[in-house]
Every structure is written in C-alpha cells, then in structure tokens.
Amino acid sequence: MGIYKVLLVDDEPLIRKGIQAIIARRCPDLSVTAEAVDGEEALAAIAKAPPDLVISDIKMDGMNGCILADRINTEYPDILNIILTGYDDFAYAQEMIRYNVFAYLLKPVDTDEFVEILGTAKLEIEKRRRLSLAHRVLDMQDPAAQIVGCLIDDDRASDMADSDALKLVKCVKDYVNAHIEGDLSLPTMGRLFHFNPSYFSNLFKQATGENYVSYVTKKRVGKAIEQMQNTDFNIGEIAEKSGYQNANYFCRMFKKNTGMTPSEFRNKMLRE
After folding, report:
1. Residue 187 is assigned to a structural domain of this protein
2. Which of 60, 61, 77, 269 has CA 20 to 30 A from 161's CA?
3. pTM of this prediction?
4. What is the DSSP string of 120-154?
C-alpha cells in the first residue's frame, strides 16, 4: 500500500477506474483509499479518513467540483486538490486558483503529464509533513523535547534544504518543458508550486547559474527553432506555439537570442 492516500471524485466509474489504473501502474507510493461520485460523498469520506490528495472532476450531479474545492480549501487546507475537467475555460482556471487548487488538468488527461503532476504533489505533501512535524516538536511543552527537535533540525536542515531546493528546481524545469505554450510567469509558477516568486528566482539562479526568465526564453526559442525545422507553420503560429501571444515580441526575443529574426533564420535554414 502506498504512503500517500488519494480520494477519487468523479461520477463516471470508467474515469475513476482509468485514473486508479494509472496510479497503480506509475505511482506505487500512492494509494486510492476512497472513491466518491460527488462533492457530498467526498466530504463524508474526508471526514471519516482524511486523504493526502483529492483528485476531482468539476461537473458532477449534486455538489460539483468547484464547491468541493472551496470546501476543501476552507475546511481542510492541508489536503491537496487536483482538478480534472473537460472545460478548457480560463474562468474555471481562475476560480481554481482562488480555491488554492494544486493543479488543473484538461481531460482527456495526458498520462505522462498527469504522472508528472502527481510527482510534484508528492513533494509538496512531504514538505508539508515535515513542517507539521517540526511545528509539533517545537510546540511541545517539554524544554528537553524542544532542544532535541532543534538539534535534529540543525543536523539535517542544510542537507534537506539543498535536496528540496534541487527537487523544486527540477520540478519547475520539467513543468516548463511540458507546458511551453502556457503561462510560465514567476507569479503563476509560484501559485502552482507554492513558493515566493522572489525567493525562487534567487534559488533558481543559485542552482542553475542562469535566471529563470532567461531559461524560459531559451526553451521557447528552442521550441520555435524545432518548429521551423519540422513544420510549415507561419511565424505567428510558431510564436503562439512557443508561448508568445505577441508575434512582434517573439521576433525581438528570437533575434536577441539567435542574432537573427525568425524569417532570417528560416531563410538561412532553407539555403543550407
């Protein structure tokens, strides 16, 4: 049995079965310990045995996923919530951010992307567990217990901090590579991965030797070059598929990084 408990909430049995199969096959340290068909059943299951993670649909008969997300955020803030939905609607995404939803994925779910998000969720759960343990130790009334807790923290803090920092940077880099067309701004990433943008910017620079914005730009320009080599998309389409909504800005960033405009680069490539 896995060490992280999962509650599945979806009114379609086949969807629940499919998600459970992915978790069993790709994430053996996760266990689906309960299932529910709507928000009311989910809250009852949470009250009986709180999970570490809730994976929920939005559209369900009875209490829907939005109301459930709000209730979890208010009543069980330590539980992570991942939303799976067929609604490709920015308004829903904004609402989910307001409810501190950990991740928002569109159905049909890409298995690799889903597994990647689950991996990030496990890191967050583990981080919260350590913080909870530290707070419990420091809240003890016995001064000796507090001293022991502080000694443990002193002995392990440096190694744990370095390890967690590297894991966070890796997770963010993996997310950037998988979502190059999306919003990868530091504030958005901060909401997704639960970090302070300024803190992470400094952390990323220390861990990689380059700043986060430069890393994203390099990846987006690389994606654009790949599309020029393998597709017939026009410059506007390439810009959009590389994460730039403004084609002129894309051209400036491309030239800044390659020394050529996208058109010049494409023409040079055709001549070679």
Report:
1. yes
2. 77
3. 0.53
4. HHHHHHHHHHHHHHHHHHHT-S-HHHHHHHHHHHH
Q: Fill in the amino acid letter for 170.
A: K
Q: Identify whether 121 is part of a domain.
A: no
CA distances from 106 to 29, 84, 116, 185, 234 (A): 24, 6, 14, 20, 27
Q: What pLDDT score was predicted for residue 168?
A: 75
Joined tokens for residue 247: 């084609």
pLDDT band at 97 (very low <50, low <70, confident <90, very high): confident
196: left (phi over 0), alpha (psi -120 to 50) or beta: beta
Confidence label for 71 from pLDDT (cuts 50, 70 and 90): very high
Domain shared by 75 and 160, yes or no: no
Question: Does residue 14 share a domain with residue 91?
Answer: yes
Contact indicator for 36, 154 with CB cutoff of 8 Å: no
Same domain, 24 and 103: yes
* Within a domain: 115: no
